[in-house]
Amino acid sequence: MISKNLLYIACLAGLGGGRAAAQATVYPAPPQQKPVVLTNAVIHVGNGQVIDHGSIAFAAGKITAVGAGVQGEAGAQVIDLKGQHVYPGIIAPATELGLTEVAAVRATNDYEETGELNPSVRAIVAYNTDSKVINTLRSNGILLAQTAPEGGLLSGTSSVVQLDAWNWEDAAYKADGGQHFFMPKLLPSSDPFRAAQQTPANDRVKEGLKKIEQVRTFFREAQAYISEKKHTETNLKFEALRPLFAREQKLFVHCNLVKEMLLAIDFAKEFGFEVVIVGGADSWMIADLLKQHHIAVILAQPHNLPVMQDDDVDQPYKTAAQLQKAGVLFCLSNEGFWQQRNLMFEAGTASAYGLSKEEALSAITLNTAKILGVDQRTGSLEPGKDANIAVSAGDILDMKSSKVTHAFIQGREVNLDDKHKQLYERYKYKYGLK
Q: Which Pfam families does UniProt cross-reference here (predicted)?
């Protein structure tokens, strides 16, 4: 992908002023040195179970015990949480995190390539671990993310990263786990003037269907190429699709309308892909069909208006509960990169519109881990899994009471400082509010 350059550094320095370098002191924590036990806490396991007055022990980056009266190893560091809440580290799926820094500054955007069919592009190699945005997510308990490319039709592969790393190699939690297909919108222009001007020659729906067929043809050609034992020439784009056809990757199809999701199901049926819908605004309409075909959904931007004018105005808030009732595997996401810091509050809204609090928590932890293929390592607080843990003084789904006091990634206690906190302290000092 497009490499970072000096203009990128200059832009950040200019935007941040004299304090821009301050966050350079927020560096990754060293590996866990001694066992840790968190005691006297309300433990939200992530699978629906809640343990009052519980404890959780972890050593060498792995959870060793969870429950009431857990005793740590000899010499363990014991932290009395005095009734605080312990959660699995929240996971943000389908983000541009680390691929863009200032949306309005082109030099800081590194999330897309030229051309429409780029399955060989790897987002992970462009992931910027020095992004100032990452720390604002960690401060809210978001400890892992799926960083994904955009642009064109087939944008390339996404990877799951942990948010406390020196470089992209350290950050990689599960590399190249999915291909991303941005399906054209099959909806006429909402602009009355443009809609009136549409003709068969510039019909947006017709043009969208044509592009979708282009992708289908590309997959068919790739399938034929992969089925051959020997090649006179190597096609790098087709080679990049081998893991997808082998079901070692998932196809993340970005779409919202029913007709678009039906086409995504057709791709799953024709090619045997494991498909995940990203967006899924109208997924509630075909929840039974999605369940039947084992299609998971990443609900994007739950704090939004409905797609269609005749939908209930609160439909985006209710969709999660409707998918839960239908038995569809789903999780929550937030479009963009810096907006991800509000992910847990969107889960809180979903809990006010039909989900239980623990179901809402699963929608940003264990469910996400299952969809991203990392549930054997993270997503819930169970022995044997990585110690990815967030501690909040109050309910982490409630913006009024959520205050993350500790965070651990693979057992390492990470620094919760960020640019926002530094500016808060700066201007408290300036106006004599300390």
A: Amidohydro_1
Q: Which helix (H) or strand (E) holds 154?
A: strand 154-162
Domains in the chain with CATH codes: 27-89+380-416 (2.30.40.10), 90-378 (3.20.20.140)
In one-letter notation, the amino acid at residue 86 is V
CA distance 41 to 70: 12
Say if CB 158 and CB 177 are below 8 A apart: yes
pLDDT tens for the chain, 434 residues: list them. 544 443 443 344 334 433 444 466 788 999 999 999 999 999 999 999 999 999 999 999 999 999 998 887 888 999 999 999 999 999 999 999 999 998 888 888 888 899 999 999 999 999 999 999 999 999 999 999 999 999 999 999 999 999 999 999 999 999 999 999 999 999 886 655 555 555 555 688 999 999 999 999 999 999 999 999 888 899 999 999 999 999 999 999 999 999 999 999 999 999 999 999 999 999 999 999 999 999 999 999 888 888 888 889 999 999 999 999 999 999 999 888 888 999 999 999 999 999 999 999 999 999 999 999 999 999 999 999 999 999 999 999 999 999 999 999 999 999 999 999 999 999 999 999 97
- What is the phi/psi pair of residue 28, to 5°? -60, 145
Contact 287, 323 (CB under 8 A): yes
Asked whether 121 and 150 are in contact (CB, 8 A), the reply is no
- Is pTM, for the whole model, over 0.85? yes
SS3 40: strand
